[in-house]
Amino acid sequence: MGAGVIKSGGGGGRRGRRRARGAQPMSEINVTPFVDVMLVLLIIFMVAAPLMTVGVPLELPKTAAQALPTEQEEPLTISLAPDGGLAIQSTPVSDAELIPRLAAIMTERKGNKLFIRADSGVSYGRVAQVMGALQAAGYTSLGLVTDPDGPRFGAPGG
Question: Is the entire prediction scored with pTM above 0.70?
Fold first, then answer.
């Protein structure tokens, strides 16, 4: 019986050879551009992060108050440290220097709003004393800065 042999899968001569010798699809991911972008973002965040906070470290009281609407101008902040010391933005000042320095700063500003940041360990009397001095000097637009993650007023545990 004359049985023949049939070859299968050769694919047709020239075409199959070209694919074998030609460029294959690359299966690796080029990580270099990804690393470059990550390094640039890291540098941006390292530079921007210190600028996002006021320089005096305080433990703000926790309240349920909502944030005030933001303005175009950076808010002027007066900080009361745990030891009772005062600072305008991050510059320490004495009680006697507070009002004259504020008067000089406010002549350069558009708004007259002041924010008071007081550590939760500062006595209520000290905060009231500073607020009274500011109001007596004519600064009536005062805001108290708090940590908004506190309990609701009147809620259990609050």
Answer: no
